[in-house]
Amino acid sequence: MTDIGHDGARSSVGHNEVANRRLAELEAGLFTSDLSVNEFALVKEAGFHPLGLVMGSSIYRVGLQIRRWSTSHELTTLSKAMYNARELAMERMESEAIELGADGVVGVRLDVNYYEWGRGSAEFIAVGTAVKAADGASWKNKLGKPFTSDLSGQDFWTMLQTGHVPQALVMGNCVFHIAHRGALTTLRTAGHNSELANFTQALYEARELAMTRMQEESERLGAAGIVAVRLEQKSHQWGSHTIEFLALGTAVSKREGDFELLRPTPIVSFEG
Amino acid sequence: MADLLPNLNGSPRPGGSSFSSTLSIAGYNAMLAAGLEPLGIVQGVCVMRWNWYGARSPYGGATPSPLSSKRLKHRYLEPTDGFTRNWRRTTSPVYSSKTITNWSCQHSTRRAGAHEPGVNFEQNWVEDLWSEAFAAARTRMIDEARMLGAHGVVGVVDTISDPTRGAKEFLLRGTAVRVNDAPAPLEVWSTYLAGERLVKLVEAGWAPVSVVAAMSSIRIWPACSTESQLSGWWPEVARIAQLESGHYSARFLARERVHAESGADDVHGVRFEVAENRITAGDDEVNCTVWGSRIRRFASPELARAPMATVPLR
Amino acid sequence: MSDITSLGSPAEAMAAAARFLATPATDGAPPTSNGGASDLSIDAVLLLRAIGWEAVELVTGISWQSIPKGAWILGKGENAAVTSAHQAAIETAERQLVDQCVTAGGHGVVGVRLELKTEKQHVAAEFVGTAIRPIGAARVEGRPFSSDLSARDFVVLSRSGWRPVGFCVGLSFVFVPWRRGAGRGRRFVGNFELDNYTKSLYAAREQAMERLQSTALALGAQGVVGTDISEGQVSFAHHALKFVATGTAVALVADAHVTRELVAVVSLDDLERDFEAESLRGS
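Above: the input entities. Below: the structure tokens describing the complete assembly.
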């Protein structure tokens, strides 16, 4: 996220000894995956083998501090914090994947957990299945790291058939405070159905910021485009005035060589 | 039976030239394709008195005491692991390899402590009552179907509810059907399946026979050691053998009853439910109910074609 | 008993069934069915049949273990008593499930569902599944497998050259770390990572996964599929966290994974017809 500055500090949490033990078992040959059986078969079909479940997490303080209640604006500190928290979780997951010698991570799932004892803090988790190409070729992305994507096994297979390869899961976020109109203004216009200009403007701006930042990440990777974009909005634990907009997608680029596009067979199923 | 179904008396329901059915559109279509003609909705009901078991069991006013009564046929599920029935009071328990050798039994302080502590037993009277009610409801539904000239009843839905305190209603409802160009069966059959699922079953070589269901009811009177385990006074992590045995048996016996009724026939689409019932402190009950469609093979199995693997593009 | 290939259309099959049910059984004739029970749908039954397997019996297992008093009082790191109670409950219940499978003549159990009920002074683990075997096979040599794969997944996996080895569970119960004294009463200064919390939860999650892996390795498996890792607070003890990882351990039957010709299809079902404007707005 170039426009609001990059938080240079990185936490000192690295692999702990349990994680190292677990990864060692995986390196010795056992594989684990949270792919369903269908996805497992498709990932194998695509020429990859699962290596192991990789995970990363970070618990971040994400307390709310609003100074200007009456104007709608971005809460840049919070945007940065939410982004960093996810980045940390993803990075730790990636480092586990690198440890395993993976070419990429598929089926990445990003979750946020809130706990009773941790008011004002949240746990960000990234979990995925690290995979390695059976043909031994390197599938690492333009930054030399294993690719990451939240594509399911089916979508992964399909995308490879179209001659594209995932680069990385890209995300852009924006935490926005939305100023509600004052009580008097509300009373004056009570009974009229009219556009709530404040809201429209704020939501538009917030979403644009989130999407732009996601696109910028993709451009930095030199990707051809982003697929399977998902737009989420969450209030987490802040109440209705403050919303985080998150845009997530998988940046992809074209593979070398010619690919014959799939010709699907139309079917009608008899499921009731 | 005739007094319960006054309007049927051998003649079809009013408006008998049109049929009614509980089938869905797809289900109706599948039935027609398989040569099954729906005749009408049929139902069977049975309402049983269903009181607390204990003071007001159907066998009399007193709490049944399995150790004293010889009339009741019940199965003892003896607690294992050396439960003691020692009533001596001491200040602290003495353990000897997971067995308490001296302990003041908590039952001596309970109001419901008239019973012998530390026993699980099968409440046959509850189980028999349930079977009786289900069978009665099923028979009445089948009788209605037979009066319509049906060969079988499909898509049976059964509901067990409490219309009022102290009573339980067993209701079985389904669509009576006739198989075109086929002889009447020896017994009117019934099944929980309907539509495409029933047709596939028959195409796979099974014929429906009847809906079956059974319930098992185990009464658990915890031993003092079970209670001490449950209240956390047992010093270490240990199996609560009495509860394990009671719960295990409840699930197992219900299935055994269903198999006893079905004989050598298979039971398809089994559903089971477990409900725990606390009658009072120190007096628990585990009830397990099993339902399924009894089916019989009529054609030798052929290895079906291997399915084609597809990837859907949405 | 007629051969199924001669049954023809659904109507002909139904008429054949009707004729069968209209004919009195000849005395002394052997029963035509197995006397088993299953909770599989007819589709699952047919899929199993396609690879030459059949359902045998519904099997269950249940175990109760006591938890001593004081086990939930806030401590440091892992809650050993509670973890071992859960592990014992799961092991015992799974053994009963597989024992029932052996009695029924099954070669393995599919569709295993595990329900774990954690209460203050006890834990109950319950397993339910369907025992299956190759059609008409004799008793299995060795111990039957258990797996949380559905019958359908079992078929897909078998056709790819894999077999399930056992259902694996890895658990870890931990205490949330003590709050550092310096943190309390300090004015909120900003958003940052909580190192010690991250470390504890990270370690606990890894511990649960590592135990899952050890179980799989002990069974001689080559991998674990369908891994699910869930975490949550214990309802009556908010400072206690529960991490449970489950999955089915698998091993190759043949030398290598078997790939099959895949057909890409586009469904013309109306299921996806509605335009999902929701997806633009976000969730």
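Note for the figure: Residues 1-6, 54-116 of chain B have pLDDT under 50 and may be disordered.
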